[in-house]
Design a protein that fits this description.
By secondary structure, the chain is an all-alpha fold. It has one domain. It is built from six helices and no strands. The mean pLDDT is 88.
Length: 95
């Protein structure tokens, strides 16, 4: 149930979802080995990729095999998310 709630929240507000995952679960801390710089950069620039990496990471193993597909999908969603705003803004400026 909590996973579905986070997924819906990530679609609506990825930064809020990442913040809640970072504060209330150990996933982000484990994935980034307790560091704060890279998760913060992910929070600012690539929230979907950071969420995917944090959830795909296996302690002691890392991200392997098909789990990289989830990280790649997160990166694609981030790119589409950011480019969608650019194209939406361009429509408003057409005369």
């Amino acid at each position: 149930m909590a996973g579905c709630l986070i997924a819906v929240l990530a679609v609506l507000s990825p930064r809020l979802a990442l913040f809640l995952i970072w504060v209330f679960t150990p996933y982000v801390t484990r994935a980034f080995h307790g560091g704060w710089f890279w998760p913060l950069m992910g929070f600012i620039f690539l929230p979907f990729t950071t969420i995917a990496y944090s959830l795909a990471f296996i302690p002691g193993v890392g991200v392997t095999g098909t789990r990289w597909a989830w990280v790649f999908l997160g990166a694609v969603v981030d790119i589409l998310w950011h480019s969608g705003g650019v194209f939406g803004a361009r429509k408003g400026y057409s005369d």
